[in-house]
Amino acid sequence: MNPQWTLRRRVTALCLLVAAVLTFLAAGATTTAIANQDQLDNLLESVGPMRAASDNLRTALVAQQTGVRGFVLAGSETDLSNYQAAIAAEQAQQAVILANPSATPAIKDQLARASALARAWRAQVAEPAIAAARRSGPAAGQAFFTDAANRRFDEITRAVQVMQDSIQEVRDDSVNSIKGTSSTLLFVLIVAAILVIASGVGLLLAIQSMVIAPVTTLASQVRSVAGGSYQRAIAIAGPPELQRLADDVDSMRLRIVSDLAKVVEARHQIEEANLLLEQRAAELVRSNRDLEQFAYVASHDLQEPLRKVASFCQLLQRRYAGQLDERADQYIAFAVNGAQRMQRLINDLLAFSRIGRMTPGFTRVDLTQLVAEAAGQNDAGRTQEGAEISWSDLPVVLGEEALLSTLFTNLIGNSLKFRHPDRPSRIRITARRVEEGWEISCVDNGIGIDPEFVDKVFVIFQRLHPRDAYPGTGIGLAVAKKIVEYHGGQIWIDTDYHDGAAIRFTLPMATDPVAEPPTAPVDVEQPAAPVDVVRATEPAERAKQSVS
Asked: Which of 191, 408, 520, 534 lies 20 to 30 angstroms, CA to CA, from 210?
């Protein structure tokens, strides 16, 4: 077989060769089977009926002799009728034999001789005996049945026996032909079976040589490369397809070697980057210590002189108010207000920095109870006549109760602070199940938030209105954002809501395993005042619980 032939061509050539031989054997087997079937049909449909007809012919001749003897002896018309019926049966069986396709000329000649002898016996013995018995009585009829007459009848039966022997020879020839074709068919089938087995073994050996052995060699080389021998070249001897596969695998090995060199280089770069990252982390730790020190100084050392400044400014305002000129009173008021604002900013900044540090961890928090407490403690709600805060079907979530209380206090406080001047505040807090856990919505009917400012409201100390329009330092929503993100959620302004403000955020479900907080714990200090924002609103629904 040409070594340049492809695997498909080789297998196709082998299969075509086997198919050609099997087709030849199948044709021979079919021809033999057809001949065998023809011979069997000839035996059953021709030779068999002809043999039966010869037996019936012999029986009819014997019945003629019996009928004549019976009529001569007893004068019974019944015996005479049987004689005449036997003559008709003889003629019918002769016609069957003559019409049979298996009747040879010798058989026909023998049949003709037997028929001639039978006619002569009837003309010279049977018919005269019947006539004599009718004319002169039984004794006259019996005189015709002499030994010579019996010998003539025996000659008829011998002629019939010779014909039957010829028919038997035809039958034996058919049987022998059937046996011969059957043996030939069996031989062809045995040869075909042997050829099929040999072809199967040949195909297995060919596949072993052309496919399995090269593939096994290739797999061994690939395993060697996979074990670390990247410099070992991959090459096999076999069909062109497998050689191309080996070339492709070797090309892949070369790419892996090239990529591995790049990975080693990248690993060195990563190690250098990790070293630099460790240095930066150490610097960040030092920076955090400095920030903690600053927080301590801001909460203790800076507030002490600030309180003195505020106290003496207030003392000047009370003692010398009206004794100096109007501009001096204004300056003193500016100083008092600035000192107080500075204290609030410092307190709010400290509260914001403590979120995420020094807290006890997550627990199961019932938002229904928590929102009720936050609504009841909100001073802004108590000062507004007709204000309503409602909620229903709030879930149990995982979180820190103090932080979540601050979250809802800030949200409710902002909604009450930024109310619409022409209508009482209506605040609705709801929840719905989402893939991340629970989505909580705080919707009000206040002045709303312009879409262009939705990103600014969560920035610390970011104000959208003058300080004299709304109180506060502008830190409330920044605190809310930090608390929500600390719980692994997200918070956003729903810009599709236009009847007030709709703030939505996500919290984890309480069915989740109780986990540690995602960052360092937090020491909560609620800001002194909620954030100042421009907001968006939804008509308030009448709820299960309300605060007016």
From this structure: 191
The answer to whether residue 405 is domain-embedded is yes
Helix crossing, 401-417 with 476-486: angle to 10°? 150
Number of H helices, E strands in the chain: 15, 7
Give me the number of domains the chain comprises: 4
Tens-place pLDDT, residues 244-299: 777 887 788 788 878 888 888 888 889 889 988 988 888 887 876 766 666 666 66
Single-letter code of the amino acid located at 197? I
In a domain, 531, yes or no: no
Regarding whether 205 and 110 lie in a shared domain, the answer is: yes
According to the model, what pLDDT value does residue 248 have? 80
pLDDT in tens, 385-399: 677 888 888 899 888
Q: How far apart are CA 118 and CA 498, in angstroms?
A: 130
Judge whether 58 and 164 are in contact, CB under 8 Å: yes
Structure tokens at 381: 């709600």
Q: At 407, which CATH number?
A: 3.30.565.10
Under 8 Å between Cβ of 145 and 32: no
Same domain, yes or no: 364 and 468: yes
The answer to whether the beta carbons of residues 313 and 335 sit under 8 Å apart is: yes
pLDDT at 355 over 80: no
Same domain, 337 and 365: no
**516 in a domain, yes or no?**
no
Token readout for 81 is: 């009728």
Nearest to 540 by CA among 440, 428, 430: 428
- Look up the domain containing 146 and give its range: 7-211
Task: Clarify whether residues 460 and 315 are in a common domain.
Answer: no
